[in-house]
Amino acid sequence: MSIVKLTDPERATWLEALKGWQMAEGKDAIIREFRFADFNEAWGFMNRVALLAEKADHHPEWFNVYNRVEITLTTHDADGLSMRDMELAKAIDDLI
């Protein structure tokens, strides 16, 4: 099964619908930063995202320092953004 890269109009439509996600600089990806009360809350969020990602078989690139979590989504098999990224971003938004 081939994963299809999103068109520019599809990206624009999805980015309007998603909360706080934006195009990443220097790569065909979307990125969002989340801030929490403390490390424990950030880690709990990361655990919930990990379960979503595993179920979707689509795993984020992420960075965590104390109460901050930065998530980058891209589909390496499509060499850029695909519906898999947008669907996972929406699922992550639904956790907040």
Q: What is the gist of this entry?
A:
The chain is an alpha+beta fold and 96 residues long. Helices cover 43% and strands 20% of the residues. It has a 4-stranded antiparallel β-sheet with strand order 1-2-4-3, with helices on one face.
What would you say this structure looks like, in words?
Helices cover 43% and strands 20% of the residues. The protein has 96 residues and is of the alpha+beta class. Strand 1 and strand 2 (30-35) form a beta hairpin. The protein starts with 7 loop residues before the first helix and ends with a helix.
- Rg computed from alpha carbons, rounded to a whole number of angstroms: 13 Å
Average pLDDT rating: 95
Residue share in helices? Answer: 40-55%
Quaternary assembly? single chain
- Global shape: globular
Given as residue ranges, the uncertain stretches (5+ residues, pLDDT < 50) are none
Give helix and strand order, one letter per element, not per position: HEEHEEH
Distance between the termini: 32 Å
Biggest sheet architecture: 4 strands, antiparallel
Structural class: alpha+beta
| Strand order, sheet with most strands | 1-2-4-3
Separate helix tally: 3
Number of strands: 4
| Percentage of residues in strands | 15-25%
